[in-house]
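Morning F.,

Quick status update on the modeling queue. The single chain you submitted on Monday has been processed. Sequence for confirmation:
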Amino acid sequence: MKGALFGVIFDPPLAAEAHKHGLHYNFTAQFNRDESTNFSEKWSAPARVAALTDGYCIGRRGIYAGQRLVLGPCAALAVGGITVVVISHRVQCADPVFFEMMGLDIAKARSVAVKSRGHFRGGFDEFFGPDRIVEVDLPGLTSPMLNRFQWTRLPRPVIPLDEGVEFGLT
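Structure tokens below.
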């Protein structure tokens, strides 16, 4: 799909590599090379460095409005028809400034995908009303699907993970 935006991917080594190469450099981007969680599989794709920034910005909408943000070295990578924003400090993509600081125009994008547990609504409501939002729940560190996690030190039984448990005050 041409004209799509995706943000944000937390990947400091990839952002650093893009900065080392410089604008318009073509390379094989290796995503998640230093991640060790079950939710961050390694993958690679041909990419072009489309934009670079130091990651200093001021949030303008939603939960980040008016806040000074320090995202570390950031890069926009053109991967096929998708421009992927890569950041160096982990935050939710809840403000259009994450794209705008790269010179990307959300209003002109054919499609915009953001990684955010729900905080994105207050930031992106000027572009997308509820009728234009499709929520997708994928495995991840903040999934509301608690049965996706392997609990190792959780006293059992617990609501809502275990069947037949009733809540009662004693």
